[in-house]
Amino acid sequence: MSKKYDFAAIESKWQKYWEDNGSFRASSDHTKPKFYALVEFPYPSGHGMHVGHIKAYSGLEVVSRKRRMQGYNVLFPIGFDAYGLPTENTAIKTGVHPRKVTDDNIVKFTGQLKKVGFSFDWDRVIDTTDEDYYKWTQWIFLKMFENGLAFRDKTLVNYCPSCKVVLSNEDSQGGKCDICHSDIVQKTKEVWYLRITEYADKLLEGLETVDYLPNIKLQQENWIGKSTGAFVNFSVKEHAEETLRIYTTRPDTLYGVTFMVIAPEHPMIQKYRDSIANMDELDNYKAECAKKSEFERTQLVKDKTGVKIEGLTAVNPVTGKEIPIYISDYVMMGYGTGAIMAVPAHDTRDYEFAKKFGIDIIEVIKGGDISKEAYTGDGEMVNSDVLNGISNKKDAIAKMLTVLEKKGCGEKGVQYKMKDWAFNRQRYWGEPIPIVHCPKCGMVPVPYEELPLRLPPVENFEPGTDGESPLAKIESFVHCQCPRCGGNAKRETDTMPQWAGSSWYFLRYCDPKNDKAFASQEEMAYWMPVDWYNGGMEHVTRHMIYSRFWHKFLYDMGLVPTAEPYAKRTAQGLILGPDGEKMSKSRGNVVDPNDVVKVYGADVLRLYVLFMGDYEKAAPWSDSSVKGCKRFADRIWALQEKLVDGDSYSDALRSNMHKTIKKVSEDIEAMKFNTAIAAMMTLLNDIYNVGSVTKKELRDFLVLLYPFAPHIAEELYQQIGCEGVLSEQEWITYDEALCVDDTIEIVLQINGKVRAKLNIPADAEKETVLVQAAAEPKIAEALAGKTVIKEIYVPKKLVNFVAK
RNA sequence: GCGGGUGUGGUGAAAUUGGCAAACACGCAAGAUUUAGGUUCUUGUGCCGCAAGGUUUGCAGGUUCAAGUCCUGUCACCCGCACCA
Question: How many CB atoms lie within 10 A of CB A151?
Fold first, then answer.
């Protein structure tokens, strides 16, 4: 009976069985309760799967398998987010078409995922580069265009000279290209934007209705970066018609303003250049700033620079005081109005600037020593006329706002850090933007019935040196008739950014083959929202906010049934290399999951990635710990030799069985997979100590094991002659009353120190326990000659004698 | 600088409401089986000590009968944001 544990044969046997039987296909029976588990679909890179993918998918894999056993109709889909630069770069390098590269990689990934035995619904696979998919990406884009949320604007853009592509702010952080790490240069270009800022408040408010881990919510809040304050209009002495409008979060400090600062690019400078005496100096400064990379700007935080504008003077609207205006690169054109009122007494940046340029510093809030440093704390208002004596910041701000509004020189205002989403790339391997530029009609959408607007075949994927998309070189694609007037027109040749396809993929999974709509209302009404979404921390801001934005837009259009796409979101921690560093090819510390599957089997790989530590935390890979999981699997396999008849729990294992069922059931829900596995290991050790296992005990053990290591569990279930197949059985329940042992050990302490232990019946009375405890030789000895002041009794836990 | 998080054995880590610190696993040591082992099994393993016993959760205080857990201060590391007005 006890054959060798031939994991390779067992795993392929059951993978075939599940596939042949469609075991994990989501059912179309909408009367059953549903559970929609979503994991971030992979980018099918040429490197194949990473152990990080395995960990990312194993979490909800366990939950999904358990849910099916609990009677849920489970949707656990997978797909491929396949547009993007790495594939295109491979194509440029090798000359192989990105379509072919993508298809090959998808085949590779699919094979690898299946070998791990994930219970994905393979009938619903999505490929974002499939024309039946990107047709709807384009369709949603056109809806946004119709509603004014997609627009073009001329701006300074971040341009990567190496990738020859315009990047979003997020893709060019630190002045480096996110893809090739070259230095970014600034360039003026007309680009596409999605007006995500219009949804800033909705995205923020929606967070109150969802169950995301607290740090995920916080990151999203910070990314949106809402601040409330006031806009204040300062007049300009030399030009009565002009107002210098600023944004501040601290209108209460208006009496402490001693100068103004505007960004070097502020339009006011050009407007009044004729009346500015030191225009040369200003131009020079501006040129200096433009040369600095973003990196240099942040490095020079401490050393403030700037130039006073000779010929423009601001007038404080509440005091009437005349104050100088400076330009400085510590004020950004991209936030607020590009101009600030400076209150050196209570802002560290303004303080540094004032010190350097010898400007007055006026204290308006008591509590600090402004001769030493700026005071940013709270306190009583001084030197502030009507505000004097107010000590509450909120009250002072409210009062100032009413003053400003009465005078008509300012009002309450709100600002966000979040910018509109730069939504185009000058690249080939992306969704074509379905817009036609007509000399007569302007921008005209491609008619819906003509979607998908297909990517034309191309010979050369190299982007043009002018930063244009390779599509611009294809005459047959570019030249077209205007859908509105029929005249000659040109197509938009930019494509959508990588984030587009993943912004709505969870909707397509609900109804992936629909050719009438991106998904039917009926299917979405049943499946949405996603019940549980798990993925990496690196996607909790951009991808999640982008997709929530698309979803909220569709909701406002009445096209999706829920205001939020994801009811719950968690995130797994990274798997680090054995050296504790982030895995990377250059470090040479990458672990290939295929190797692990080959040597130890998929079940062991699955067990290990969940056992290695707290699921949400980063943990280094350890080859020898993998062996520990292999040993666990081997010992489970060898249980067959300990099998005895019996369709109930033995006395020796009864409470252990119930305790373990409880522990594993609860830990899975809390994503504490490591302790769930530890509990099963403990039970296994207990079985070995007892020396035999009844069929009922082993069967139930296999049910617990199944979500984690389904192949070995299925095989043993069959080997020991149980009915049917394990994947179709019900999850098991426990009896709380049977989780307790008959006798328990309690700890006896004197003054908080453990002196002895005592075995008592679980239902022993307090009085009995105290008497027995005091009678314990060690306790009696230690208490001799002392007076017991207090006796603490914690039922089922301990007795503590406080003695003097 | 701001925000969040983490500090526990040689290692990865456990530890409801404060209630036996170190579960589970790795590693290591000794032994058994195995003439070879990426085999299996047994025993031991926080630290000091022959032992009785003492002592231990980054550091310093505090609250409590009792603190890894609560409070105050402090140090280190990690992640996010960053001249955001």
Answer: 15
Nearest nucleotide (C1') to alpha carbon of A680: B24
Place of tokens 């401490």: A302
Pair type for strands A339-342 and A150-160: unpaired
**Residue A1 pLDDT:** 43
In the numeric block, which tokens belong to residue A552? 């909220």
Contact A445, A142 (CB under 8 A): yes
What share of chain A in percent tops pLDDT 90? 69
Concatenating the DSSP letter of every residue in A463-503 gives PPTTS--GGGG-HHHHEEE-TTT-SEEEE---B--TTTGGG
Environment class of A133 (CB within 10 Å of its CB; exposed 0-12, middle 13-18, buried 19+): buried
Give, for A601, the enclosing helix (H) or strand (E). none
Read off the pLDDT of residues A480-496 as tens digits, 9 standing for 90 and up: 999 999 999 999 999 99
pLDDT at A511 over 90: yes
Q: Are A191 and A166 in contact (CB under 8 A)?
A: yes
pLDDT above 70 (res A174): no
Record the tokens describing residue A487, joined without a space. 């005249």
Any idea which residue has 């072919």 for tokens?
A: A100
Phi first, then psi: what are they for A453, rounded to 5°?
Answer: -85, 105
Gap between the Cα atoms of A426 and A465, Å rounded: 11
Residue A504 and residue A549 in contact, taking contact as beta carbons nearer than 8 Å? no
Which residues share a beta bridge with A73?
A34
pLDDT at A748: 86
CA atoms within 13 A on the CB side of A76: 24
Average pLDDT, chain A: 90
Instruction: Give A605's contacts (C-beta < 8 A, 6+ positions apart).
Output: A54, A116, A593, A596, A597, A626
d(CA A757, CA A771): 14
Which of A121-125, A373-377, A674-678 comes out lowest in average pLDDT? A373-377
Measured CA to C1', the nucleotide nearest A328 is: B83
The token pair that represents A197 in the structure block: 């800022």
pLDDT digit string, tens, across residues A359-375? 999 999 988 888 888 88
Which pLDDT tens digit goes with each residue over A689-718? 999 999 999 999 999 999 999 999 999 999
Could you say which nucleotides of strand B lie within 7 A of any protein CB atom?
3-5, 11-15, 17, 19-21, 23-27, 38-42, 54, 65-67, 79-85
- The encoded tokens of residue A81 equal 């987010």
pLDDT value, residue A176: 65
Q: Is the CB of A219 under 7 A from strand B?
A: yes
Peptide bond into A267 cis (omega under 30): no
